[in-house]
């Protein structure tokens, strides 16, 4: 993933919304299978097809498991985001699932990712470098293992989950807390030292701007449904609608 990339979370199983987002010029989308009840592997496939290469598609899988990782990449996703990577062993497990031999153990099938076999050899030859494995750092327990996690061959980037990170510190949702912010600064510094690109979630433009100013490489700004609701509230408010809320 190139630096200073801007995108948003996709939480709805709507290829049409994904298509519309791609038209806007976003660099990437974060398809959330971990928390969205609507998004399953079929929805991932349809979202990938709707975007059609106009933006990078990264899928957050529900758990660090080879089946979920394999299905997401086989659907044609540009990368996977693996939640709750806490140890070097967690990172290695994700690499084994996401990368083909000899680096990993990803199995081979006839899938949409290589045009159902029409681009088979080229895809296999380039997949380990062209598809990205992103480890999500969202547990305070991961901090003591962060250097080892970032040093695992095959880990292409890291992503901060600020809400779960704050919760693991006993400060759920208190993102402005100095200790939480200091921990995020440490993650930024360690990723920079390791040469590993880092992303983060920001709920709004101000948070995204702050993240970019701190040197974060890619940001997911809000969610598609949140942005839709915000835009409609702005319209209702501007027209003094009594039900605006």
Topology:
Elements (H helix, E strand, L loop, with lengths): L4 E6 L4 H10 L3 E5 L8 H11 L4 E5 L5 H9 L4 E4 L5 H11 L21 H11 L1 E6 L8 H5 L6 E4 L1 H7 L9 H17 L3 E5 L2 H9 L4 E6 H15 L7
Helix pairs in contact: 1-2, 3-4
If you had to describe this structure to a student in words, what would you say it looks like?
It is a single chain. The chain is of the alpha/beta class. It has a single domain (5-238), classed as Alpha-Beta Barrel (TIM Barrel). 43% of the residues lie in helices and 17% in strands. The chain contains 10 helices and 8 strands. It has helices at residues 15-24, 41-51, 66-74, 88-98, 120-130, 146-150, 162-168, 178-194, 205-213, 224-238; strands spanning 5-10, 28-32, 56-60, 79-82, 132-137, 157-160, 198-202, 218-223. Strands 1-2-3-4-5-6-7-8 form an 8-stranded parallel β-barrel, surrounded by 8 helices. Strand 3, helix 3 and strand 4 form a beta-alpha-beta unit. Helix 3 (66-74) packs across helix 4 (88-98).
């Amino acid at each position: 993933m190139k630096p200073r990339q801007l995108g948003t979370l996709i939480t709805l199983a709507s290829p049409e919304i994904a298509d519309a987002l791609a038209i806007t010029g976003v660099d990437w989308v974060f398809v959330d299978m971990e928390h969205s009840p609507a998004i399953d592997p079929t929805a991932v496939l349809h979202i990938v097809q709707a975007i059609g290469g106009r933006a990078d598609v990264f899928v957050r899988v529900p758990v660090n498991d080879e089946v979920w990782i394999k299905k997401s990449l086989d659907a044609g996703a540009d990368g996977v985001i693996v939640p709750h990577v806490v140890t070097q062993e967690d990172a290695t497990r994700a690499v084994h699932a996401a990368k083909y031999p000899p680096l990993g153990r990803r199995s081979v099938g006839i899938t949409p990712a290589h045009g159902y076999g029409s681009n088979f050899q080229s895809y296999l030859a380039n997949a380990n470098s062209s598809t990205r494995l992103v480890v999500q750092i969202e547990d305070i327990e991961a901090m003591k293992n962060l250097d080892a996690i970032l040093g695992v061959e095959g880990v292409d980037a890291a992503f901060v989950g600020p809400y779960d990170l704050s919760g693991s510190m006993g400060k759920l949702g208190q993102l402005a807390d100095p200790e939480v912010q200091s921990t995020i600064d440490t993650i930024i510094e360690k990723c920079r030292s390791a040469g590993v690109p880092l992303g983060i979630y920001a709920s709004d433009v101000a948070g995204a701007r702050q993240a970019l100013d701190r040197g974060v490489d890619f940001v997911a700004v809000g969610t598609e449904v949140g942005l839709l609701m915000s835009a409609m509230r702005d319209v209702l408010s501007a027209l003094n609608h009594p039900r605006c809320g």
